[in-house]
Design goal:
The complex is a heterodimer. Chain A is built from 21 helices and 20 strands. Chain A is α/β, with parallel strands linked by helices. By secondary structure, chain B is an alpha+beta fold. Chain B has two helices and four strands, in the order E-H-E-E-H-E. In chain B, strands 2-3-1-4 form a four-stranded antiparallel sheet, covered by helices on one side. The mean pLDDT of chain B is 91. The chains are: A alpha/beta, B alpha+beta. The A-B interface holds A 117-118, 121-122, 125-127, 129, 146, 300-302, 304-306 and B 10-11, 14-15, 18, 22, 54-55, 58-59, 61-65.
Chain lengths: 562, 85
């Protein structure tokens, strides 16, 4: 049957099982949009290509499967870049498809021509410039295989317009690209790991996003209990252990609990699983877990020894390795060590004003959300103070319940990611916790949300500042507040209404939490503007470059509570 | 000295040199020669022998277009000097 490059691409995506993708059309990609007309694939028209990239990320982070975003050549492609780079840093499987000017025009500075291949090269797991229709047939399944196999990541495919319009007879289709069976640890490695862990007196698990990516969250819970090991999670791993699990020591690192960071200094064995010793997690690396023998398991060999040499480096799939470890590791008991963990946790609680005193303090807000939202809710965040408050105080109880931009730290992530999550998990409520700085970075996607009428509530923690910048200027730059205060603040509720959504501003003098619960209980999308105290700080905080145990925990001045 | 076997297509060299630039690895010299059917090439990289060498090799091995990475300490750095034209 006669096909064009565009109908081949559409068919390959259908065969891949893609039923929803996000993008924006434009000149070079029009042949593909023509082919999409009448396809079973649902196209989500976002209002900015970065929104399309993060809608796709929201779908991918919710399901663990590769999702697709589309953009035309030139500015369409450059607008996608931030979302692609974000997927790279957080190991999210993404296939970004861009159109390119016709091959005859490549290199001539043609209208809407940009070197997308060159631009995506350093921010993708792999990238392609497709030069013929035959290459297209190979490239699309390969892109999905690469995005999902091993350590997941984004793959970019740039397709010149003439490849989309070229014609060819197709008699048989290539198999869809599938995740390859992951590399697994050897028997000897699992044996060595079991023996190291069985000898530990003060073991801890250091769980990273790789635990969730490999579907090992349940196994990691079992391992923590088998080993009787207090466990910490990175931002990307929150939800792996239930919030009320007595072994859950919460998040480590820059905004982790003081007790958590102190306990890690006393551990004699640290078992890091799918974690990459990121600087926000380790603090000053030379002083990270100084007493500990480190076992490090990762699917990506290059992560082993990249930051910190491990005594036992292991390359392999986390789910496989933990399952086999559990077969040979007898139950351990470390009452004293567990007691020490509890002691440190109790000695260093999260400090915040009481709910009665300041109901809209973000810690109180996050805990209230935890009580109010159903168990299967998905929370997305933007980046800044509100993100860290969510990480510290929202009770996550399952993997993939928190979607957040960890590695790249992209403001503007939350709203489009929430739309993607709601598309990928119909029936589950989605809450995007944002800030008044972050929400403005992709606020145009409120139009997309209104159009789709998805159950997404956008909560804007509004302190009229770039809060985390203000906080750092207060703590580390002599209170010289440079460009961190917004001189004018928009009426976010009115903006939401302008987009056709419900818009509410909480009244701090009334019963703001009651108003919040009421707004969340109503069906359909909404934006809730939440005035929070401008001077509230996220504590603890490790000063940049310092060791984790030196985190600042000073309570804020009492006067500020008034 | 690090030897690579790579897929021979436009872009492979950018991936390799881009990796060195991006990760702040030093690349002193580079030689690339197509192999028999021209589907693959042999690449020889002269890399400063620093503690990052193993990390460099691991990052190179992750590139889709790099098929094989071999450590070749027996090839002297002077090898490249003989190629001067």
């Amino acid at each position: 049957m006669q096909h064009t490059g565009a109908t081949i691409l559409r068919t390959l995506l259908e065969r891949q099982g893609i039923h929803t993708l996000a993008g924006i059309p434009g000149g070079a990609i029009l042949p593909f949009y023509d082919a999409l007309h009448g396809s079973s694939i649902r196209h989500i028209l976002t209002r900015h290509e970065q929104g399309a990239g993060f809608v796709a990320q929201g779908m991918a982070r919710t399901t663990g499967r590769a999702a697709v975003c589309l953009a035309t050549s030139g500015p369409g492609a450059t607008n996608l870049l931030t979302a692609i780079a974000d997927a790279r840093l957080d190991s999210v499987p993404l296939v970004a498809i861009t159109a390119q000017v016709p091959q005859a025009l490549i290199g001539t500075d043609a209208f809407q021509e940009v070197d997308t291949y060159g631009l995506t090269l350093p921010i993708t797991k792999h990238n392609f410039l497709v030069r013929s229709i035959d290459e297209l047939l190979e490239t699309v399944p390969l892109a999905f295989r690469l995005a999902e196999s091993g350590r997941p990541g984004p793959v970019a495919i740039d397709i010149p317009k003439d490849v989309l319009t070229a014609r060819v007879d197709i008699t048989s289709w290539p198999e869809p690209g599938r995740r390859e069976p992951p590399r697994v640890c050897t028997e000897a490695e699992v044996e060595a790991l079991a023996s190291l862990l069985a000898q530990a007196q003060r073991p801890m698990l250091y769980l990273g996003g790789g635990v969730i990516a490999s579907g090992a969250a349940e196994l990691a819970r079992e391992l923590a209990h088998r080993l009787d090991a207090p466990s910490v999670m990175t931002l990307m791993a929150l939800g792996t252990l239930a919030a009320d699990d007595p072994l859950n020591m919460g998040m480590l690192g820059m905004h982790g609990g003081k007790g958590t960071n102190l306990l890690m200094r006393e551990a004699d064995v640290i078992f890091a699983i799918g974690a990459r010793f990121d600087d926000r997690a380790t603090g000053k690396v030379a002083e990270f877990c100084p007493q500990a023998t480190i076992a490090h398991l990762d699917i990506d060999r290059a992560e082993l020894g990249k930051i910190r040499a491990a005594t036992l480096p292991l390359v392999g799939d986390a789910a496989d390795a933990i399952a086999r470890l559990l077969q040979r590791l007898p139950a351990q008991a470390h009452e004293g060590w567990r007691g020490r963990a509890a002691e440190l946790r109790e000695a260093h609680p999260l400090r915040h004003p009481a709910r009665s005193e300041e109901p809209l303090h973000p810690v109180n807000l996050c805990r209230f959300l935890g009580e109010t939202l159903p168990d299967d809710a998905i929370v997305t965040t933007d980046v800044g103070q509100h993100q860290m408050w969510v990480a510290q105080a929202f009770p996550f109880n399952r993997p993939r319940a928190l979607l957040t931009s960890g590695g790249l730290g992209t403001m503007g992530f939350g709203l489009p990611a929430a739309i993607g999550a709601a598309l990928a998990a119909p029936g589950r409520p989605v809450v995007c916790v944002s800030g008044d700085g972050s929400i403005l970075m992709n606020i145009q996607e409120l139009a997309t949300l209104a159009e789709l009428d998805l159950p997404v509530a956008v909560l804007v923690c509004n302190n009229a500042h770039l809060g985390l910048v203000r906080q750092q200027q207060e703590l580390f730059y002599g209170q010289r507040y440079s460009a961190s205060r917004f001189q004018s603040s928009p009426d976010f509720a009115a903006i939401a209404r302008g987009f056709g959504l419900r818009g509410i501003t909480l009244d701090p003098d009334g019963d703001p939490l009651g108003q919040l619960a009421e707004a969340l209980a109503k069906p359909g999308p909404c934006l809730i503007d939440i005035p929070i105290r401008e001077t509230a700080n996220v504590l603890p905080m490790v000063p940049p470059g310092a060791a984790n145990h030196l985190s600042l925990t000073e309570p804020e001045p009492a006067a500020a509570h008034a | 000295m690090v030897e690579l076997r790579v897929r021979n297509h436009p872009g492979t060299m950018s991936h390799i040199t881009g990796l060195f630039a991006r990760r702040a690895f030093n690349l002193e010299a580079i030689l690339c020669v197509p192999e028999g059917g021209r589907a693959t090439s042999q690449v020889l990289l002269l890399v400063t022998d620093d503690p990052k060498l193993e990390q460099i090799e691991r990052q190179l091995a992750k590139l889709h277009d790099v098929l094989e990475v071999r450590h070749r300490p027996e090839i002297p750095a002077a090898f490249f000097q003989q190629l001067r034209w």
